[in-house]
């Protein structure tokens, strides 16, 4: 009797498992990889699988790319070498360059939420010696409508203080006092914003960044480029000359420090997506504040670190420097995205950007 009962229980268990598998058939399933624990859930999606490899292998891609649908990774592709010893993987971190600006904008809006800043505050309230300070608002800095312009400065040495950087900016930045309201892409706007953040809070940019982003979202593959102890699997950046020669980039410490708020963070593609999506959808700032900060107005193309594509509508940014090339294309609600990080920067070649744009228009253009 006991044997029959045991057999009966075994049959019931098998039936339950079979029915469960049938129920899952045709649906997305979670993909688990202990070696690549990332901040975003990765699932199998037969419709999207292989799309990135097919597209990016055409331009001899070296880096990591992900496709996001409904806040999940539905396709990923890693190729090439991170450095002399390691391959690029889903957890490899890359210098994100100008993709940092949207994150700096979020730090600014946090202080607005706290009442420490107002978007219509004049810069003279915080940095009176800056040329044009009494005419420029925080909002204009965020949208690069400040009329400030500064050529790229050269720095030498292993370090550069925040005060030293501000002195260099004040001595070299120009303010166009004419009536023209012409937009101009000038990274100095975000350096000034970062200096204001440090003055208002009494904390360093790194402290603000880690408290608001890294700790809040549990990011494991994010760190500052100047960190002395490297905790992530960093890729090295290489400039690829027209001859095909790969030149490893080694910027000095002062140069890295000079990119305050505008290009001095290493992140993995999943970490970056999670953070930007959390800013756009209001998880970090609140829905109303996120809309006020990032949602484009009228014909404005640039808003708080992000450009706008209208057909189809999505937000985007590009980053270049120190042998890295980075791209993000993301829906306004953050649910769909294309993130592509490369540690190869090809001289005079925008082939990767063209492929990213082609893919994004198709992927972000359908429901």
SSE class: alpha+beta
Helix fraction by DSSP (H/I, runs of at least 4): 25-40%
Q: Would you list the SSEs in sequence order as H and E? A: HEEHEEEHHEHEHHEEEHEHHEEEEEEH
First-last Cα distance: 58 Å
Beta-strand proportion: 15-25%
Whole-number radius of gyration?
A: 23 Å
Largest sheet: 7 strands, antiparallel
Q: How would you describe the shape?
A: globular
Mean pLDDT: 91
For the largest sheet, list the strands in their spatial order: 4-3-16-15-14-13-12
Low-confidence stretches: 15-34
How many individual helices? Answer: 11
Give a count of the beta strands, DSSP E runs of length 2 or more.
Answer: 17
Give your account of this protein's structure.
34% of the residues lie in helices and 19% in strands. With 367 residues, the chain is α+β, with helices and mostly antiparallel strands. The chain has a 7-stranded antiparallel β-sheet with strand order 4-3-16-15-14-13-12, with helices on both faces. It has a 3-stranded antiparallel β-sheet with strand order 5-11-8.
């Amino acid at each position: 009797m006991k044997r029959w009962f045991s057999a009966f229980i075994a049959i019931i268990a098998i039936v339950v498992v079979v029915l469960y598998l049938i129920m899952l058939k045709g649906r997305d399933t979670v993909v688990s990889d202990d070696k690549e624990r990332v901040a975003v859930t990765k699932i199998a999606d037969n419709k999207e699988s292989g799309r990135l490899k097919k597209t990016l292998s055409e331009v001899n891609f070296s880096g990591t790319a992900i496709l996001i649908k409904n806040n999940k990774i539905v396709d990923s592709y890693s190729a090439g070498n991170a450095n002399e010893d390691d391959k690029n993987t889903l957890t490899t971190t890359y210098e994100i360059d100008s993709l940092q600006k949207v994150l700096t904008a979020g730090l600014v809006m946090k202080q607005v939420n706290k009442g420490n800043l107002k978007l219509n505050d004049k810069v003279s309230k915080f940095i009176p010696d800056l040329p044009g300070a009494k005419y420029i608002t925080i909002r204009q800095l965020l949208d690069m409508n400040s009329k400030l312009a500064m050529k790229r400065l050269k720095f030498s040495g292993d370090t550069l203080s925040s005060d030293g950087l501000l002195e260099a900016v004040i001595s070299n930045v120009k303010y166009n006092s004419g009536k023209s309201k012409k937009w101009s892409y000038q990274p100095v706007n975000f350096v000034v914003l970062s200096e204001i953040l440090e003055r208002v809070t009494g904390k360093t940019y790194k402290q603000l960044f880690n408290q608001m982003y890294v700790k809040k979202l549990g990011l494991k593959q994010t760190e500052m480029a100047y960190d002395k102890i490297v905790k992530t699997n960093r890729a090295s950046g290489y400039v690829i000359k027209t001859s095909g020669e790969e030149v490893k980039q080694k910027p000095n410490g002062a140069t890295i420090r000079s990119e305050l708020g505008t290009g001095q963070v290493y992140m993995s593609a999943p970490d970056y997506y999670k953070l930007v999506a959390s800013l756009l959808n209001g998880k970090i700032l609140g829905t109303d504040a996120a809309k006020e900060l990032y949602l484009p107005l009228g014909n404005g193309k640039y808003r708080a670190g992000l450009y706008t594509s209208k057909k189809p509508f999505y937000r985007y940014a590009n980053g270049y420097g120190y042998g890295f090339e980075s791209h993000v294309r993301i829906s306004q609600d953050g649910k769909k995205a294309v993130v592509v990080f490369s540690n190869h920067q090809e001289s005079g070649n925008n082939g990767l950007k063209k492929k990213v744009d082609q893919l994004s228009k198709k992927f972000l253009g359908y429901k």
